[in-house]
Give the backbone structure.
Amino acid sequence: EQTLKQRLKDAPEGSYTKRLFDDEQLLRDKLVEEAQELSEAADPQEVAGELADVLYFAMVRAAKAGVSIDDAVVELDKRARKVTRRQGDSKSFRIAAGEAILNKTNTES
């Protein structure tokens, strides 16, 4: 987390992390792509690798927004204490948007 905060301030030109900070669409596409790959991972090693990718891109997004891991943990604690919760069903419009991004990525590969 500290490394990403520092990179946000002074990432070298041409670095991948700088590209992610500067290109919102690239970061969004990578988050969706890696989340899809995590959902399809079949064995523990593959899950660990894809989870690492998701965490990296999520942390880049958080650093860009000025949000820390501690902020996310506080939010999780708040949600765990709520008496009423939404059902937790998936949001179909988000699924469709993610599939569109993945289809775009797959045709470019």
